[in-house]
Design brief:
With about 375 residues, the chain is α/β, with parallel strands linked by helices. The chain has 18 helices and 11 strands. About 45% of the residues lie in helices and about 15% in strands.
Length: about 375
């Protein structure tokens, strides 16, 4: 798996080979490999560790796939990439997808990755903000001004009758240490990030309080999507990608420590300078274990529903987006997520993956 930014290309390292037990591919195998250009809005980290697992354990290779990850820094660019054909599959929460659909984009939701909502507004535990009404006049820190979390926070605050750029403002503060410093230093009054970021902050000793609504809390979060044309022409590719991610998510849920160690070896820049691996592992485990609860909500392994969308959840997203002013006209989210590939996603030996994950604890 390659992560492509404007300046960096990260290569797989020894742990991936020893865990996956895969030899170098022959020229014939390489010729039959399908490359997927995959859009990711955030850098590799604990929240994305299943993707590192899918590569290291050979799950993508078993499907004849090579995945190039294109880190965009925002969700809007991913939607634009799918529309233009420069990206094949993208990852983002639904807000920018639904917006694009109202403007004529023919997009298809193909894999429900994070099955419960990750986003909310967070303030320091001693913040004077006690209710959504108290966000009037606040500055809200966003990872970027093109992130889907900004749209989500606007939807949450719309429930209190607050309007962006009138009643409150946004400021791009990034993620990780930079975002936390902006909050602690008073540059922003609140953050609009996601579960793993907040869990890491709290693991480092910064208690937070959270704001959302019951409606938002019930929504699914990050989804994989593509164009309707790509889905129609590349069914086997999408099925293989989703099956590999289902396996990798099951592996990660079974042995999160092994998943993180794989990620550190695959992507050394996920290690924070000055932290020992053990210190970082302690922080990242807290974040990843919180994420696993959302990745496995509804027990998709037992129910055979990896990647599946619930029709009521799709309708709830479309209704929330319209009511909150995220979109200005109704969309048919159910039609955009036909569930065509779900049976194929779940066609694998889960016991074998669980066994691999348990054995993965020796990969140090």
């Amino acid at each position: 798996m390659n992560i492509r930014r404007t300046t960096a290309l990260l290569a797989a390292v020894a742990l991936a080979s020893s865990l996956a037990g895969c030899a170098s591919e022959s020229p014939a195998a390489e010729a039959s490999t399908t490359t997927i250009e995959f859009g990711l809005p955030t850098n590799m980290g604990a929240n994305n560790s299943p993707m590192a697992v899918a590569e290291a354990m050979g799950y993508f290779a078993e499907e004849g796939l090579k995945v190039d990850i294109v880190v965009t820094g925002d969700s809007t660019s991913i939607v634009q990439g799918i529309d233009s054909g420069s990206l094949d599959i993208g990852s983002t929460p639904p807000e920018p997808i639904l917006q694009a659909m109202t403007k004529g984009s023919d997009l298809q939701l193909v894999y429900n990755y994070i099955r419960k909502q990750t986003g909310s507004l967070a303030v320091l535990a001693d913040s004077p903000i006690q209710s959504l009404d108290d966000f009037r006049g606040a500055v809200i820190g966003q990872a970027s001004l093109g992130t889907s979390n900004m749209l989500l926070s606007e939807g949450i605050l719309a429930s209190a009758g607050l309007t962006p750029d009138v009643d409150y403002s946004h400021l791009a503060v990034g993620t990780g240490a930079a975002a936390l410093q902006a909050l602690k230093g008073g540059q922003v009054d609140a953050l609009s990030l996601w579960d793993t970021e907040y869990a890491a902050f709290e693991a480092q000793g910064t208690p937070l309080r959270y704001f959302t609504t019951d409606e938002v809390a019930s929504l699914f979060s990050t989804t994989y999507f593509t164009s309707a044309e790509y889905a129609a022409d590349n069914a086997a590719t999408i099925e293989g990608f989703g099956r590999a991610m289902a396996k990798a998510t099951l592996f990660t849920a079974t042995n999160p420590e092994a998943a993180l160690r794989i990620m550190y070896d695959e992507y050394p820049d996920t290690l924070v300078a000055g932290n020992s691996i053990d210190d970082q592992l302690a922080i990242d485990l807290v974040a990843l274990e919180r994420r696993i609860e959302l990745l496995t909500a509804g027990d998709p392994q037992a129910s055979g529903t990896w990647g599946a969308y619930d029709e009521s959840a799709l309708k709830a997203w479309a209704a929330f987006a319209l009511d909150a002013g995220i979109i200005d006209s109704a969309v048919d989210a159910v039609a955009a997520a036909p569930g065509t590939f779900v049976e194929a996603y779940n066609d694998f030996d889960g016991d074998a993956v669980i066994s691999e994950a348990k054995n993965g604890s020796a990969a140090e």
